[in-house]
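Weekly modeling sync, notes
Attendees: S.R. (lead), two postdocs, one rotation student

Agenda item 3: backlog of single-chain predictions. S.R. asked that every request posted to the team notebook include the full sequence so nobody has to chase files. The rotation student volunteered to paste the first one in as an example of the format we agreed on. Action items at the bottom.

Example entry:
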Amino acid sequence: MIGILILGLLLSTACGAVLWPYSLNTWLDFFGRPESIVWWHGVLLGLCPGVGQFGFILAAVTFILMLFLV
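Predicted structure, as returned to the notebook:
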């Protein structure tokens, strides 16, 4: 049971470290701001319940919108 919890936390941190900086830095770059989100900011966001799971949706929407906007 505890192993499943640890695995879930590790998966959340790994996904957060990739998805949140991608999404936020892409939008910052689109609006002409300097990219300032690093991987550990994404880890912290990935560990927040609800916010972490929203990263998957935000990354997918960002990818699709950037196909048309850029």
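Discussion: group reviewed the output briefly. The chain has a mean pLDDT of 95.
Action items: rotation student to repeat for the remaining queue; S.R. to check formatting next week.
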